[in-house]
Structure formats: structure tokens, C-alpha cells
Design goal:
globular; single chain; alpha/beta
Length: 332
């Protein structure tokens, strides 16, 4: 299984490669990708440098072009495809049919991966994308159980990539409306949940902090309480007089214990979420998963998740908690 790691900037890209990633994924500094935070991503020169660094070590670089342009801005996404091809990217990761179509017609030798934002969760959807746009891989949304992943691996016309570790999205990716409901800026069109210009932190007299998104109170943290980047889905709200994480608690997906089962199912690639995270996160998570994958290849049926691996991953998990999320549930 290919280990695909995040590269929010050039140092993170090199760190991921050095830590054992088979491939990294990055984005340009614009709204063509779904992590368009200020100060994040790469320019063309950095992308070329990163590709040269990866290729010299036998690794690959994928470019995320996974947001949805409107018709007035489609030329920007087309230009990004051109830039990816000219820079020597090994593949683009896209969701919008118009972007995939342009890439297939204009740069047929540039591999096309269907983004998780494409929300393809059935064999017919994957077949249509393969037949129409020639995708060579699809990234599955984080809403499927392990049994559903196994069935899709049996029926999919293309290799499948699944999220293995990182922040969870409770929505069917590509269809979330929460951020745009509060801010008017859709993450699928503007490249980020909770755009930074709408976020406001305030210190409270008791030493705590509050965070608001476009004036809407999202959460209140006690003094010394860890606080992640604020998104509506992971905020705390007053529901019937009780304040709690009404939609989702801050926690990270961790499928390490499922690694043998994912391998048996035929999963082609394991994706680590976290382009918004720093090099320390990338180094720890990539090296841990590299060790686990290599040990599985060596030990086979005798493989077991090591406590040290789980401890390392938990230390970098959101809210210092991990979960199997929808991979494991009582109903199917």
C-alpha cells in the first residue's frame, strides 16, 4: 500500500519524503485546493523543487485541485492543471468534472485521481468517473464502514485510496454547508472551512477564551484548555440547556488497527490528512505509518499494532483522542 502524506509547504514536503512517504500531496496558494489558508501551500518554484526532491528519491508528488470553480473562474483551475503538468506532477487530485475533463483532453498522460470531495461512494459512481474522465484512482470519503470499503474494493474499476489518519469530517465530503451557512463562503468554492478573516478570538476576564466565526459564538475554552482551529462542526453549543459538542467531538481518525484488513481488501493507498499541520506532525505520523506498513509486509499474519505507535499517533491527534469513526459502527 502506498503511503500518501500531506505537504502544506516545502519543508513539510521534504520532511514527509524523508520520513518514508511514498507520495505527498500539495496545493497551490489559491482557492483551487481545499486547504487555502493564508501562509499555506506552495508556489510554482517550490512545487518544482519539491518534485525534484521527491523524484530523486523515487517518490511521487500529487497536486490537489479539489475545489469547485464557478463558471466565471474555471479558467483559473484550467491554468492550475497546466501548471501541474508543466511542473512534472505525478497526478492531480480533482473533484469537479469540468476540471477532470480539461485535464483528460489537454494532458492525457497526467494521471487523474478523483478527490474525496467528489463523494464517490458506489461502484457505479466510480465506473462513471473512470469511463468519462479516465481516473486512475479514487479517494473514498470518510463516511464508509470497513465492510463498505471491502465491497467497493471488489467492484471498483480503479484502485482505491482511503484516509488512514487525521482530522475527521462528519459530512459527505463535497457537500458540507455548515461553514457557508455561517460565513457565506463555501469551503468547496473558497478552499477552506472557517476562513481566517471570519475568525475572532477573545480573552475572557477569567483567563479563558472565546472564539467566534463571523460573529457567531462557536466555543468557549477554559484557561489552559487546548483549542484547535474553530469549525462549526466541532464547536460546542447550547442544546436544551446543555452545552456540549452537539455535532462532533474534536478527535482524529486512526485506522492503524485495521491495517491488515485494509491490506487484505486490496486498498491501494493510505492517506494521511493534515496539510494545515506542521513538520513535526508530518514527521511523526509518516514515520509511524511507514514502520507499521513495513512491519506488516514482513510479519504478515503475525502483525500487531505496537503500543508505541499508538502513543505517537495519539500525541498528534486532534483533542488528543483517536477513533475508528465510521469505519466501525454497529449498523450497516
Amino acid at each position: 500500500m502506498e503511503l500518501v502524506c500531506p505537504a502544506g509547504n516545502l519543508p513539510a514536503l521534504k520532511t514527509a519524503i524523508d520520513a518514508g512517504a511514498d507520495a505527498v500531496y500539495a496545493g497551490f496558494r489559491d482557492q483551487t485546493n481545499a486547504r487555502a489558508f493564508p501562509g499555506l501551500n506552495v508556489d510554482e518554484a517550490e512545487l518544482r523543487e519539491g518534485i525534484a526532491y521527491a523524484h530523486a528519491r523515487g517518490r511521487r508528488v500529487y497536486l490537489a485541485l479539489n475545489t469547485y470553480p464557478d463558471s466565471a473562474r474555471l479558467a483559473t483551475w484550467h491554468a492550475a492543471v497546466d501548471r501541474a503538468a508543466q511542473a512534472g506532477c505525478d497526478a492531480i487530485i480533482a473533484a469537479e468534472p469540468a476540471v477532470l475533463d480539461y485535464a483528460a483532453r489537454t494532458h492525457p498522460t497526467l494521471a487523474r485521481h478523483l478527490s474525496v470531495q467528489g463523494s464517490a461512494t458506489t461502484a457505479p459512481a466510480l465506473s462513471w468517473m473512470h469511463e468519462r474522465f479516465g481516473i486512475s484512482r479514487a479517494v473514498l470519503p470518510r463516511v464508509l464502514s470497513i465492510q463498505q470499503v471491502e465491497r467497493l474494493c471488489e467492484r471498483s474499476p480503479v484502485p482505491l485510496e482511503v484516509f488512514a489518519f487525521g482530522s475527521l469530517c462528519i459530512m459527505v465530503e463535497g457537500r458540507c454547508q455548515l461553514s457557508s451557512y455561517v460565513t457565506g463562503a463555501s469551503p468547496n468554492r473558497h478552499g477552506v472551512c472557517s476562513p481566517a478573516k471570519f475568525v475572532r478570538w477573545d480573552e475572557e476576564p477569567d483567563g479563558g477564551r472565546t472564539v467566534r466565526l463571523n460573529g457567531v459564538l462557536i466555543d468557549r475554552f477554559a484557561e489552559g484548555e487546548p483549542a484547535g482551529y474553530p469549525t462549526v462542526c466541532k464547536g460546542r453549543f447550547d442544546v436544551g440547556g446543555e452545552v456540549f459538542h452537539a455535532l462532533e467531538e474534536p478527535t482524529s481518525l486512526n485506522t492503524l488497527e485495521l491495517l491488515p484488513r485494509l491490506a487484505r481488501a486490496g486498498v491501494a493507498a493510505l492517506k494521511i490528512e493534515g496539510r494545515q499541520r506542521g513538520a513535526a506532525y508530518v514527521r511523526t505520523v509518516a514515520s509511524t505509518w511507514r514502520a507499521a506498513i513495513d512491519r506488516l509486509a514482513r510479519d504478515g499474519g503475525d502483525w500487531a499494532a505496537q503500543p508505541a505507535w499508538q502513543q505517537a499517533l495519539a500525541a498528534h491527534a486532534e483533542g488528543h483522542q483517536t477513533t475508528l469513526g465510521p469505519y466501525h459502527r454497529a449498523w450497516h
